[in-house]
Amino acid sequence: MKAEEIRDMTPxxxxxxxxxxxxxxxxxxxxAASGQLENTARVRQVRKDIxxxxxxxxxxxxxAKKA
Length: 67
Fold this sequence. Notes:
Blueprint: H1 3-7, H2 11-34, H3 41-66
Helix pairs in contact: 2-3
């Protein structure tokens, strides 16, 4: 997921996306622990996507406070 796509989202969409990514991260961790994880790189991608969503959420909140 690209930062541009995330910036176009509303705050509600961002929170929904964050919940979705956290659920996926949980499932990936569970699969890794049980030895069923096929794509190990996906764990890292999801972690970075979560960071992107959180960063942009904070940026939007900061801009809203300034305005």
